[in-house]
TrEMBL record:
It holds the Pfam family Phage_T4_gp19. PANTHER family: CONSERVED HYPOTHETICAL PHAGE TAIL PROTEIN. InterPro entries: CHP02241 (IPR011747), Phage_T4_Gp19 (IPR010667). It comes from the Bacteria. This is Phage tail protein.
Amino acid sequence: MAKSYPLPKFYFKVSRPEQEFNSADQIGFTEVSGLDYQTDLIEYRHGADPNFSKIKMPGLRKFSNVTLKKGLIQGFKDANADFFSWIGDGSKAGSVRKRVGYRKNLVITLNDEEGNPVVAWTLTNAFPVKVSFTDMKADANEVAVETLELGIEELTVEYK
């Protein structure tokens, strides 16, 4: 592959560093969005400053929520349950409603056409903040898609 061409964005993988989701290759995601953050701006000027303007300093970082979308696949009940039990009904640890062990680190890897990782985004302490199930229309010619929105505490990027 020529190194001078921009990388296509269609070959990516979502995984947990300690273990992948059950059958992640079978329930793969169709879209990942929200991989961004910003640094708040702090402006300051003391009264005796001879320059009649404020200085600008970096402040706190804010991370956007990351959205994962996947098609609803018939016959993969266990794989779907593993992923969506994360938000949970509060009956077991590891669910958001139980407030115990629900934060997970995720890695999103963008690969080249040969499957080699090129860029990896690590989402630290991610947890579900919103789940959206598919809408239904009798005259639609579309795939049923579920959406999981994650709150994160940190986003780091590593170029391979």
